[in-house]
Design goal:
CATH class of one domain: Alpha Beta
Distance between the termini: 37 Å
Mean pLDDT: 90
Order of helices and strands: EHEEHEHEHEEHEEEHEEHEHHEH
Largest sheet: 7 strands, parallel
CATH superfamily of one domain: NAD(P)-binding Rossmann-like Domain
Strand content: 15-25%
Strand order of the largest sheet: 3-2-1-4-5-6-11
Length: 309
């Protein structure tokens, strides 16, 4: 692929898991980034932090001013109720769109989720699908990316699976298949799309790690087991009713820090979270580079170095 020109990128969610990796890659590539943050951040070359949030119109105005492209990564994956998901995912997206319109900024890369395909399964999926509708109706030069399950160093959403695998067993949803992608590959795609002015406008893309048909839950559990040094990890297909009980227990014990929530149970138990091959990114724009077995092993190593595993 030809060398990407320098860009002025406005970014939401830059302090999160996906955003932090995308920010690193953007700065390494020589781009200038303006990023939204709720907390003070250390200064860096070619990076301007804008204090504020998606609810702060003045901050968003400063964020998008003079940008070539806005990469909207911020969102919520866990909220106490539907209104919380709508505020973080749908209304936050509207606020970004409004700020772009006021400044005359046209190019928007919007990070959605495969959950948007099934809005009736969860409040999270409903809110992501609603956000997509706002993007499509915006009249901006938009591209929507629907990642599947994202893993990599720094991720805490999949950390629990690695911890279970280390103990020698994994409780997984009943039958079904899923796609996955490494955060490094996803971030590289977001930057490639940001610099593309010909092939990616007004498209919805679903991505994966290049494994045709995705992963069976048991296969993926075994792959995590090998990554943590437990090749004989036992995978347990957990019925939906038991996952529901576990979700209520997790919410009771860990409160807002719970990873398995009632809203996620139906989502987890859905049998098809495989990225659609008909919505794949054109190969000249992007292809996954990180093989999942290698990526999982590197993730496990990073978890150990952080003392998480």
């Amino acid at each position: 692929m030809k060398t990407m020109r320098q860009m002025r990128i406005a970014m939401t969610g830059a302090t999160g898991f996906v955003g932090a990796e995308t920010l690193e890659q953007a700065l390494e590539a020589g781009h200038h980034v303006t990023a939204l943050t709720r907390r003070a951040q250390p200064p860096r070359a070619r990076l301007k932090w804008v204090p504020g949030s998606l609810e702060d119109g003045a901050a968003l105005d400063t964020l998008v001013r003079d940008a070539d492209v806005v990469v909207h990564i911020a969102g919520v994956v866990n909220a106490p109720d539907r209104d919380g998901f709508e505020a973080g995912n749908a209304r936050g997206t509207i606020a970004v769109i409004d700020a772009m319109r006021k400044r005359g900024i046209r190019r928007l890369i919007h990070v959605s989720s495969l959950a948007a395909r099934e809005p009736d399964l969860s409040d999270y999926g409903w809110s992501k699908e609603l956000a997509e509708r706002h993007v499509k109706a915006s009249a901006l030069d938009w591209t929507i990316v629907r990642p599947p399950a994202i893993y990599g160093p720094g991720d805490r959403e999949m950390l629990e699976l690695f911890r279970m695998a280390k103990r020698g067993f994994m409780m997984l949803p009943p039958g079904g298949r899923l796609s996955v992608v490494h955060v490094g590959d996803l971030s590289r795609l977001l930057l490639n799309l940001s610099g593309d002015r010909e092939f990616s406008h007004i498209h919805v893309y679903e991505i994966d790690d290049g494994v045709p048909g995705g992963w069976d839950h048991k296969e993926f559990g075994a792959a995590i087991g090998r990554a943590v040094g437990r090749p004989s990890v036992r995978t347990i297909a957990t019925p939906e009713w038991l996952l529901s009980i576990a979700a209520h227990m997790d919410r009771t014990i860990r409160g807002k820090n719970a990873k398995l929530t009632p809203d996620r149970v139906d989502y987890f138990c859905h049998p098809d979270w495989v990225s659609a091959s008909t919505l794949h990114v054109p190969r000249h724009l992007w292809m996954p580079e990180i093989a999942t077995p290698d990526g999982l092993k590197a993730t496990a190593t990073a978890y150990r170095e952080k003392g998480w595993l």
